[in-house]
Design a protein that fits this description.
Number of strands: 9
Shape: globular
Radius of gyration: 17 Å
CATH topology: Ribosomal Protein S5, domain 2
Helix content: 25-40%
Strand content: 25-35%
CATH superfamily: GHMP Kinase, N-terminal domain
Distance between the termini: 22 Å
CATH architecture: 2-Layer Sandwich
Order of helices and strands: EEEEHEHEEHEEH
Length: 232
């Protein structure tokens, strides 16, 4: 893996925030508490939603800002982030509040969605700790959390299985895959939340799929450890 760091509490105003770096990919993740829920969640508990955007200077050439209509890639990724983080939170326990996650890519060098999910979990943890304080839940964030969630890219590059692909490797990979997993709070065996995989330049055998899953799972175990270290 590339060097991975978490700068917890990077912003002052959101209930939780984290600047996450996967090598030269950097994503600012924040989690805010809003005292409302969508109509279909009224009387049922809380909600968690996510937005994702790439800042104009995150790529070269400059990326134009999203207007009223977001580009399809951003919409797909923010839905992925929302699904991944909802797998970690018991939203029925939250009361009628929404955790709104914002993931803004500052520098893009491959793996922005996996970095966003992994860093956003830390921001969500801290937002839930704030919610627990407001609701006088002595267990803190753990009252609402079902586990840790982290994500990792993995692929086949020049016939070899590699994890945490930067842009140069991702753009030439024969197989490109993103794995999202959840493990119990405090550690333990992880289970898959979502698997996205594509043979970019043809097909690949079952044996290679097994290698990809094994390598990605091992890398995510390390992400879980780094998340716990950041919280400690």
């Amino acid at each position: 893996m590339r060097q991975i760091t978490f700068q917890r509490g990077f912003q002052a105003k959101p209930a939780g925030s984290c600047l996450v770096s996967f090598g030269r990919t950097r994503v600012l993740c924040s989690a805010s508490i809003e005292n409302e829920v969508p109509q279909y969640r009224r009387g049922k508990g809380g909600w968690l939603t996510a937005e994702y955007a790439m800042m104009p200077g995150s790529t070269s050439p400059r990326k134009k800002r999203d207007g009223i209509k977001q580009d399809g890639r951003s919409v797909e990724i923010q839905r992925l982030i929302g699904r991944a983080l909802r797998a970690a939170v018991d939203i029925d326990k939250m009361g009628e509040v929404t955790i709104a996650i914002d993931c803004d890519v500052i520098d893009a060098d491959g793996g922005t969605r996996t970095a966003a999910i992994t860093g956003a979990w830390i921001a969500v943890h801290d937002a839930l700790a704030e919610l627990a304080s407001r609701q006088k839940q002595k267990a803190g964030a753990a009252h609402y959390l079902l586990g840790q969630v982290a994500a990792m890219s993995v692929g086949i590059v020049k016939g070899q299985v590699e994890v945490d692909l930067d842009y140069a490797k991702d753009s030439t990979a024969e197989v490109d895959m993103n794995l999202i997993m959840r493990c119990p709070l405090g550690g333990g065996a992880g289970d898959f939340v979502e698997v996205q995989g594509t043979g970019e330049h043809g097909v690949f055998p079952r044996a290679k799929l097994d290698e990809l899953l094994a390598a990605g799972s091992s890398a995510i175990d390390e992400l879980f450890r780094l998340q716990r270290a950041a919280l400690a």
